[in-house]
Amino acid sequence: MNSVTTPKSKKSIVNSNVKFHLFLLPFICFEIFLNLMTGYHKGMLLTCAEKDRISDLPQHLIGSILERLPIEDAIRTSILSKSWRYRWTTITVLLFDEQFSKKFVENEAFGRNGFIRIVNDVLMLHNGPISKFSLHIPRIDLDSFREVDQTMLLISRKRVQELVLTNSNRCYELPSYVSSCLELRTLELENCIFKPLLKLEVFCNLEHLHLRNIDFGANSCGTLVTLPQLRRLVLVTCKNVYYFNIKASQLQALIVFGCPDAMFLRLLDIPCFRVVCLYFVESFEHFLRVERMKLTWLLSNLPKVEGLFMDGRFTKFLSAVEIPKLLPSAVNSLGYLRLDYFQLSDLHQLHAALSLLRNSPNLKKLWMRLQMEPQVMRYDAGPTSIHLESMDCLDKTLNRLQTVEIISLEGSRPTLLFIKLLLAHSPTLVKLTIEPSGTTDAHQRINIAMDVIRFPRASTKAELIFLNPKP
Amino acid sequence: MSKKTLTLMSKDKQLFNIEEHLAVQSVTIRNMVKEDGASSVIPLPRVDSETLALVIEYLNRQQAPEEDEDYVKKFVDERGEIPTLLELAQAALDLDIKKLMDAACMKVADLIKDFTLEEVREALRIENDRTPEEEKAIRDEFQWAF
């Protein structure tokens, strides 16, 4: 029976026209077999030649399913039948994550280093390459890291492409075997020391590098690390980043979170950035060796940036006198701006926010999380309110802005004036979402809503959405 | 200029038309088109018509890229039967449609994760050919997993 199911068909289809492509030939041999198999769920009778369904599927597909099971479930399948005995041993994803180690830490039957011994047993039985391996070292009283070193030795022979090592224990000194993982594309490390032998540039295929709680002072001695394929660099609460001298000309995303001496000036000197995320977390005074930077300089160094994320604390790093109203050249590429933990009662942060809005003519999406205002500022007019009410506060129309989301809103005067300003200057706004702060009561939330509803809107299509605070 | 259409033929000889620019989300089809323009019918001798109809429905989706992840997840969620999902995963593997295959495998894994071994055997039609002694030996070897 032939039937052409799409009405748009114009061709007449003749069976003899069928052309069997060479690569499909081996599959055809399976056809009779598969007919039997698929007959099963269509209510056909099965002969004694029936095989288990999943065993007939290619090993690749079985592997894909097994890889998505927790590791112990995957290993349990070896009991299913004789043909399943070793199927799990060729899976290419092995994740011994926090959830896994937790079970063994709570169960003392396996001894102190028991879980690492299990990991090593599994690795010794495993057969073939591993594409992704992750290991979490929990906070337990470890005698030594000797067994973890063995794990690293075992995986260094597995042509690993993605290696994740998270460590809640004391600092772990990575053994030199790791440097033979030459095929690494993704490397994520937490709380480790590199021995002098481990030079990051041996991983010349590395595309993603994620470092958390790494102290570069003890490691790098300022030598230049060249990673030509690196696309994404994430540094979270690392120390002595100042000594981390990296050259990565293809870097597209930079995420720096709470690194007290990140050398932004050096890191940002790359032309391909598409996403930049700069979170200081702590206040500026805690930072060492940080040179203040001009907003003009920052933005002129990011000619292709599409997403810019920063926290309020980061704006302190932009030198106070140097937040100009208009920049020499606008940031035409910027489509998504995310301002996290901003305090609009802080004149400095307000100026930075306004300057970014004014100089991003193609901004489509603005996301803001507000920081709780100091008590005294909450209902005070304050200098920021005066500034927000001045005529030339935002002397630009935000012609492309479509969605605005403001969360953790307490309803202080500067924040409401800021929303008023946005509504008045955004003629193409489609959606404004407001989520009040969890500290507000029902009465305050109604007041916020009543205020915002009254603000004149430049866009006739703007929808206002009020969400309940998240618990 | 009208959009170019390709014809795919299922195992049970049903024919399905799909616009070429949508069909080439399948790497297999993309390579065939590149090779010889794929002017004739493309046979898929391992995919039955019900599964192929699902694949075509997936390829024809009109999602914005940022909603695509959610869409494919929902798409497989709605077809929560293991036999259907396995057929779909198999077809997605043959046609090299990675997202669909990943999602279907993920869903199967999610479904069988909480099964007992007996339930897994039943769902996947696996015949237990082990003696209780052999079973015990494996349980002892991987004590931590049971």
UniProtKB/TrEMBL annotation, chain A:
Keywords assigned: Membrane, Transmembrane, Transmembrane helix
Show the stretches that span the lipid bilayer: 20-37
Q: Which PROSITE patterns match?
A: FBOX
**Superkingdom:** Eukaryota
Q: Which InterPro entries match?
A: F-box-like_dom_sf, F-box_AtFBL13-like, F-box_dom, FBD, LRR_At1g61320_AtMIF1, LRR_dom_sf
Q: Which SUPFAM superfamilies match?
A: F-box domain (SSF81383), RNI-like (SSF52047)
Give all residue intervals belonging to the F-box domain.
51-103
Membrane is among the record's keywords: yes
Q: Tell me the SMART domains matching this sequence.
A: FBD
- Which PANTHER family does the record cross-reference, listed alphabetically? F-BOX DOMAIN, FBD DOMAIN, LEUCINE-RICH REPEAT DOMAIN, L DOMAIN-LIKE PROTEIN-RELATED, F-BOX PROTEIN-LIKE
Name of this protein: F-box domain-containing protein
In which organism is this protein found? Centaurea solstitialis (yellow star-thistle)
Q: Which classification does the entry list for the species?
A: Eukaryota, Viridiplantae, Streptophyta, Embryophyta, Tracheophyta
TrEMBL record, chain B:
Which SUPFAM superfamilies does this entry report, sorted A to Z?
POZ domain (SSF54695), Skp1 dimerisation domain-like (SSF81382)
Q: Which InterPro entries match?
A: SKP1 (IPR016897), SKP1-like (IPR001232), SKP1-like_dim_sf (IPR036296), SKP1/BTB/POZ_sf (IPR011333), Skp1_comp_dimer (IPR016072), Skp1_comp_POZ (IPR016073)
User: What keywords sit in the KW lines?
Assistant: Ubl conjugation pathway
| Superkingdom of source | Eukaryota
The regions listed as transmembrane in this protein's record are none
Q: In which pathway does it act?
A: Protein modification; protein ubiquitination
Identify the Gene3D superfamilies for this entry: Potassium Channel Kv1.1, Chain A (3.30.710.10)
Q: Give a GO biological-process term.
A: ubiquitin-dependent protein catabolic process
Q: State whether it acts alone or in a complex, and with which partners, per the record.
A: Part of a SCF (SKP1-cullin-F-box) protein ligase complex.
What's the family? Belongs to the SKP1 family.
What this protein is called in its record is: SKP1-like protein
Species name for this entry?
Answer: Centaurea solstitialis
